[in-house]
Amino acid sequence: MKFGHFDDQNREYVITNPRTPYPWINYLGCEEFFSIITNTAGGYSFYRDARLRRITRYRYNNVPVDDGGKYFYINENGNVWSPGWKPVKTELDRYECRHGMGYSRITGEVDQLEAEVLYLVPLGYRGEVQKVKLTNHSNRKRSFSLFSFVEWCLWDALDDNTNFQRNFSTGQVEIVGSTIYHKTEYRERRDHYAFYTVNESVTGLDTDRDAFLGLYNGFDAPGAVMECRSRNSHAHGWSPIASHHLRVELEPGEEKELVFVLGYVEVPVADKFTGKQEINKRPAEDMMALFRSNGDVDRAYNELAAFWDELLSVYQLEHPEEELNRAVNTWNQYQCMITFNFSRSASFFESGIGRGMGFRDSNQDLIGFVHQVPGRARDRIIDIASTQFEDGGAYHQYQPLTKKGNDAVGSNFNDDPLWLILSTDEYIRETGDWSILDEMVPFDNDDSNQATLFEHLKRSFYHVVENLGPHQLPLIGRADWNDCLNLNCFSEAPGEAFQTTENSEGGVAESVFIAGMFVLYGDAFVQICRKLGLESEAAEAAGHISVMKKVMNEHGWDGRWFVRAYDHFGKKVGSDECEEGKIFIESQGMCIMAGIGLEDGRARTALDSVKDRLDCEYGIVLNNPAFTSYIVKYGEISTYPEGYKENAGIFCHNNPWIMIAETLVGNGDAAWDYFRKICPPYLEAISDLHKTEPYVYSQMIAGKDAFTPGEAKNSWLTGTASWNFYAVTQFILGIRTDYDGLRINPVVPEAWDGYVVRRKFRGASYHIEVTNPDHVSCGVKELYLNGNRLDGNLVPICKEDSVNQVKVVLGN
Ligand code: GLC
Ligand code: GLC
After folding, report:
1. Contact 722, 419 (CB under 8 A)
2. Hey, CA dihedral for 543, 544, 545, 549, is it positive or negative?
3. Which end of the chain, N or C, is more open, meaning fewer C-beta atoms within 10 Å of its C-beta?
């Protein structure tokens, strides 16, 4: 069952039934000011850090779901409704929510009165702008009231949710004309405040929640709205809010537009006050001046559209399947930018008060957006590398505001360092900017202790060499990619974090997955050394890699698939010898991506085992058989019921590793089949089962052992976005960035006739037309650049600003 449809022309998903199976959200903002908005106008805003600069309040896991947001109410002679259906939930004659690139437009209509609200965060602006358009489609005069509503958060979202003994006494506001200023804690150490305004004079206002709602009412029936009378309340403590009341009259056919602005302001300490305890409003007034008229909003909207046009123009596909086009051209790329901006902080499954930026997550996210914002990717790499330790190890997480490593979580996730090689390598492939390797980068954010980024990569590589276990495989530490396979943690106490509890001395558990990573990204390091002319460095590293390959042949292969790990007692994990968890997806994907088993058929055998044991209707599960009880020596993985999360859920992040592996063995049909199974636009028809948004990937889909296979959770902020984009664009469609050009190597279903990719690369444009007259899966038979035949499959870098025609003919 569907709840809307794609509007490809406008790059929107159009929701036409407000009762979606879960709130379907969108993100506003691309720089500093961000909002999350649901299809019924729920959600909240924050400045840079969702925990420490939360501007409006939100209650997660609320009852009913998604209560609280940027609400508007209409009261026409006692008939009360909201344009987004919620919170009032009056049946609308027409409802539509269009989630687009950085904006959402929500429209409701009752009795031929239409209210459309456009929500957006303009580029370069520290605020959210809401344009409300009211249209009288009837042939009689209408007169009604419009109420706005936001609830302030007292800045620190965690404290706001817990420290009521203090917070109920601290709230403060100021009111000037139609503007409500939220200034809690401004008198003391905060140099920031927020405001909510409208570009017209108001009939009334409210700033105290209980006065506006009535203590025992919900958002669905605020007393002020129901009685059509603002209380003109002034908040002192309790819960400050901001609500405007405007009286509107519309002649038949008339429309009226209003502009609301929710802004955030920082003031230099010396200029904080203009009178006794009176906040300096000048910066806010400057911000308001930018959005006085509807035209101002239209301009910001057009700028935003142009911004996204530009970002998305770097990789555009024309393919017969519209689902694939919309994934590749719009939504997957959009999601990659969202993961860049938000990491794992704030979604409808991440509360914004939890973890910081992940070292491994951020490096992997980068491979999905480096083509769009290479400059910002460069800064991100430097930020991440600056949290690395001298010995090559890394903090598992760092805080976005301070960019410092997070002590609470610490280090020793032994896959972390190697992901830095992946991100840097992909950055260089995209940009050709080798100078990044000469950049001086601190260790552990200590500016007195710096080395080149190249040196950081080298430390990443040797961190593995220096941390080998009894089989000479890499020590796993607290966990590798799989955060829940905690082989050195033996936790029996409820509430202990599996990732940070290490209560057995001398952990010797080893990871075959990290071994695969070491071969794959170690090889990238070797190639980089060669490019830099560092032959002996390259040779030494290559020596370590070939030793690792031998070790893997001896200890990493189980007969029909790759072993996953060795536990604390030296026993295999992910082996036929095990009772449960005989096979894991991660080592199959990573080892084959590293090229292991490609020559001797083991790769094919392992992929057949994946197909037999891990594949299901909705994707590839993480392990099989699922764990049916808690196994203390394995850690968190076996805490999840069968079929969920890391215990045999479809962890969409690592499915693309298998897709890539299938392309490496030349099986385009299998790669495509796996891609299609989890690619959101292909799941639109089962939205009722899938539950999360049909326009973005979710971290997890319940696997075949679950109670409801096919049901997804944790949408938006997941490495799934970047890995799937990487797999489909670079390995299936086969336009791979390489140091000296674009490497063309499509591996596609045999039935495909062809497609066109428009790729901007190093300042030039390439119009790449792939045809498949013999219906093969792979193999470039002929390649032409601007009419000239090329040998091999590398399209060299062309002159800046040139537009180039590339013809690719597949065949044997
Ligand atoms: C989550 C984490 C990621 C980890 C994955 C598997 O997505 O953010 O770092 O690799 O789970 O455990
Ligand atoms: C939990 C989650 C896992 C995530 C980890 C990160 O273990 O199940 O997916 O990666 O937390 O903290």
Report:
1. no
2. positive
3. C
- Determine the pLDDT at residue 345: 87
Query: Is residue 136 within 8 Å of 142, Cβ to Cβ?
Result: yes
Low-confidence ranges of the chain (pLDDT < 50): none
Query: Taking Cα atoms as reference points, which of 261, 257, 256 lies closest to residue 244?
Result: 261
User: Could you say which DSSP state residue 627 is in?
Assistant: P
CA 374 – CA 372 distance, rounded (Å): 6
Q: Is 185 left (phi over 0), alpha (psi -120 to 50) or beta?
A: left
Sign of CA dihedral 288, 289, 292, 296: negative
**Pick from 561, 585, 707: which is nearest to 651 by CA?**
585
Q: Which residue has the tokens 């600003």?
A: 801
pLDDT for position 156: 96
Looking at residue 552, its amino acid is M
Crossing angle between the packed helical segments 374-385 and 359-369, to the nearest 10 degrees:
170
Binding site membership of 356 for ligand 1 (Cβ less than 6 Å): no
Closest ligand 2 atom to 497 CA: 7
Is there a contact between 423 and 367 (Cβ–Cβ < 8 Å)? yes
Q: What is the four-CA torsion angle of 138, 142, 144, 146, rounded to 10 degrees?
A: 50
Tally of CB atoms within 10 A around 655? 29
User: How many whole angstroms from its chain centre is CA 433?
Assistant: 26
Residue 561: which of 516, 517, 526, 504 has the closest Cα? 516
| DSSP-derived secondary structure letter, 90 | P
Q: Are 658 and 674 in contact (CB under 8 A)?
A: yes
355-388: b or e for each residue (b if 16 or more CB lie within 10 Å)?
bbbbbbbbbbbbbbbbbbbbebbbebbbbbbbbb
Q: What are phi and psi of 253, to 5 degrees?
A: 80, -10
Instruction: State which H helix or E strand residue 594 sits in.
Output: none
Q: Which residue has the tokens 């490497």?
A: 743
pLDDT for the residue numbered 337: 97
Question: How far is residue 35's CA from residue 263's CA, in Å, rounded to a whole number?
Answer: 12
List pLDDT tens digits, range 96-115: 999 999 999 999 999 999 99
With a 6 A CB cut-off, is 358 part of the ligand 1 pocket?
A: yes
For a ligand 1 pocket test, name from 366, 483, 514, 724 the mutation site with the most ligand atoms within 8 angstroms of its C-beta. 483
Contact 739, 733 (CB under 8 A): no
Instruction: Write down the pLDDT at residue 403.
Output: 85
User: Closest Cα partner for 727 from 668, 791, 769?
Assistant: 668
Identify the pLDDT of residue 344: 87
User: What is the rounded CA–CA span in Å between residue 10 and residue 30?
Assistant: 19
Ligand approaching nearest to the C-alpha of 500: 2
Kindly give the pairing relationship between strand 764-771 and strand 803-810.
parallel
Kindly compute the dihedral angle of the four CA atoms of residues 750, 753, 755, 761, in this order, to the nearest 10 degrees. 60
pLDDT value of position 736: 98
| CB of 653 shorter than 6 A to ligand 2 | no
The helix (run of H) or strand (run of E) holding residue 456 is: helix 453-465
Instruction: Choose among 511, 522, 520, 516: nearest CA to 477.
Output: 511
- Please state whether beta strands 255-266 and 192-198 pair in parallel, antiparallel, or not at all (unpaired): antiparallel
pLDDT, residue 328, reads: 98
**Which stretches does DSSP call E strand in 399-509?**
440-443, 446-452
State in Å: Cα 355 to ligand 1 middle. 12
String of DSSP letters for 732-790: IS-EEEETTEEEE--B--TT--EEEEEEEETTEEEEEEEE-TT--SB-EEEEEETTEE-
Q: Which bin fits 620, alpha (ψ -120 to 50), beta or left (φ > 0)?
A: beta
Check: CB of residue 519 under 8 Å from CB of residue 526: no
Q: Is the CB of 489 under 6 A from ligand 2?
A: no
